[in-house]
Amino acid sequence: MGLQRADVHHSASTWRQPAPSAASPERSALVESMAKRILAVGSGRLLVGIDGFTASGKTSFGHELAERISAAGRPVLRATLDDFKKPWKDRHLYDRESGEGYYRNAYDYDELKRLLLDPCGTPEATSAVLCSIDPLTQQSHAAETTALAPDTVLIVDGVFAFRPEINRYWDFRVWLHVDAELSVQRGADRDQDWAGSEAESIHRNRYLVAEGIYLQEVDPVPMVDVTIDNSTFASPRILTP
User: Fold this and answer.
1) CA distance 27 to 149
2) Which CATH number fits domain 8-82+152-230: 1.20.140.10, 3.40.50.1010, 3.40.50.280, 3.40.50.300?
3) Which pairing describes strands 76-80 and 153-157: parallel, antiparallel, or unpaired?
4) Where does residue 222 fall: left (phi above 0), alpha (psi -120 to 50 degrees), or beta otherwise?
5) How far apart are CA 226 and CA 171, in angstroms?
6) How many CB atoms lie within 10 A of CB 158?
7) How far apart are CA 15 and CA 125, in angstroms?
8) Which residues contact 22 (CB under 8 A, 6 or more apart)?
9) Torsion angle (degrees, nearest 10) of CA 133, 135, 139, 144
10) What pLDDT, in 10s, does the model give residues 151-171?
11) Tell me: the pLDDT tens digits for 205-235?
């Protein structure tokens, strides 16, 4: 890969997780190989979607990919679907807290398309928005734009990334596999700070139920470009080429 490192632009959201430290040579090699595959798709603007169960490691993998791709000289935008949810203040207007309600109602796909995906997918567009509403502060960042270059690579992570509403936008699709119980365990451990004793229940009865609906209705895994077993962070494995 090239020597001239390009910039990585991140969302302004306070929900943003830090980039992970290098876990192992094995993981670094896998991420490097994925970056090369993505760059081989083309020299123009590219949109990459990373999906998988909650707490499967999507955000960390997105950050790792961004570092490898920027090292090759391609500017990168990083975004997460959690920054394009409907305002929490409007939750009384619809069910967002059951599993089915979360799947049907939590995300604002119209805003996601208008602010981020349509601009990034339009060669003539010169800027995009990386965050609509901060999940923690509920502050709107919809007026804050980031410049788009002709060769920008957008990397977006989030559950339900391959729903019919937005699936057509992706040039490359990654599915991170972990089993359901590991997803619940990881998610509950991660969210103890804000969810407390309710963390496991939220993950089991809301997120896991929502993901089950997604798998049944959309069946996203067969449509992806690569499936990676991310059960052990230091030893990920490619399951499908």
Assistant:
1) 29
2) 3.40.50.300
3) parallel
4) alpha
5) 12
6) 23
7) 27
8) 28
9) -40
10) 999 999 999 999 999 999 999
11) 999 999 999 999 999 999 999 999 999 999 9
* CB-based contacts of 198, cutoff 8 Å, min separation 6: none
| Average of per-residue pLDDT values in the chain | 94
Using a 10 angstrom Cβ sphere, with 0-12 exposed, 13-18 middle and 19 or more buried, the burial of residue 218 is middle
- Beta strands across the sheet bearing 172-177: 8-9, 76-80, 153-157, 46-52, 172-177, 226-229, 237-240
pLDDT at 73 over 70: yes
**Domain boundaries along the sequence of the chain:** 8-82+152-230
Specify the higher pLDDT residue, 194 or 159.
159
**Mean predicted confidence (pLDDT) in 61-87:** 97
Is 104:127 a contact under the CB 8 Å cutoff?
no
Of residues 22 and 58, which shows the higher confidence score? 58
**CB within 8 A of 238, min separation 6: which ones?**
30, 226, 227, 228, 229
d(CA 233, CA 231): 6
Give the HSE-up count for residue 91: Cα atoms under 13 Å, Cβ half-sphere.
10
DSSP state for residue 113 in the 8-state scheme: I
Query: Does position 25 have pLDDT exceeding 60, yes or no?
Result: yes
